[in-house]
Amino acid sequence: MSEGEFFTSNGKILSLRVRARPGAREDAVLGVRAGELVIAVRAVAEKGKANNEIVRTLSRALGVPRDSITLRMGAVSPHKVFHAPLSCEAALRRLVGEKGNP
Question: What domains appear along the chain, each with residue ranges and CATH number?
Answer without folding.
Answer: 7-86 (3.30.1200.10)
